[in-house]
Amino acid sequence: MKLVPQYEFTEEQTRALHKARVLEYISIAYLISVIILMYIVMGSSQAMKTAWIEDCLSLIPPICFLIGTHVCWRKPTVHYPYGFHRIISILFLCAALALLLMGSFLLIDALIKLSTQEHPTIGMKEFFAKDIWLGWWMILVLLWGIFPPVILGLAKTKQARMLNDKVLYTDGKMNKADWLTAVAAIGGVLGIGMGWWWADAVAAAFISFDILKDGWSQTKDAVTGLINRVPTSLDNNYLDLVDKAEKMLTEFSWIKQVQVRLFEHGHLIYGEGFVNTYDNASICPEDLRDAMKKVRELDWRLQDFALTVEPHVDSKK
Hints:
Shape: elongated
Number of helices: 10
Membrane topology: Multi-pass membrane protein
Organism: Alteromonas pelagimontana
Number of domains: 2
InterPro entries: Cation_efflux_TM, Cation_efflux_TMD_sf, CDF_Transporter
Subcellular location: Membrane
Radius of gyration: 26 Å
Oligomer: single chain
GO molecular function: monoatomic cation transmembrane transporter activity
CATH topology of the largest domain: Alpha-lytic protease prodomain-like
Order of helices and strands: HHHHEEHHHHHEEHE
């Protein structure tokens, strides 16, 4: 059985992978600190509870990335001839489904609280023999949740582009948007303090909708990635790699017509081409190897590409 080639990182990509892993370990440590602090001061605020659950869910992407990077780069085996890169897509789907389901539950819960006009209260907490409104402690903790995620998110998306890692890229985008969650929760807490009972539920609904939106978009991306979608960028824009491959192959003198199909396989891209040669063309194995090599050189992710010579290739419909 012929196995797909094992991709070896360049020195620059190796450094990027190391930095990405360090960033994810830092993210996990940071999130744990936020989760503990928020749990201590959470009280009865619906917005704080929703923000706390979102922070708990935010642990899933970095954990998935760390697991995936230790599995996906294993060498292909007889039982797994295409390698293990698709584990990234599977973990991505699991994380997305968790966000989708929890976001739906939290949004429904917030809307119920709003419709029943539940009036949350925030009490006092003693600190050095003085009673201080617990809402101020909540706001301090939420402020801790605003700036570090933005910095981590920017760093993650930079490394993700070098590795073509959609889990890392999505995690980075979520981090950059986390400040909205903290600001919404602060608004809910301040609303309770001002006597606006509805502010807390509205803030919780806003945060829940943000979780639901992330879960929906990520689930859609994960599912389409698992059904052999044509290659896309990290921003989910379709690449013109197929057109480039077909144009480049038709430049060979012995190729009359060609059709190429490519698909994503985790970080990498696999594909095949079907060529129709001129009637008087004389080709040898070296010609085929040279053509396949030229196609693979179009993109570092294109690691396995095969050419099949056919007596006739139908025109594109």
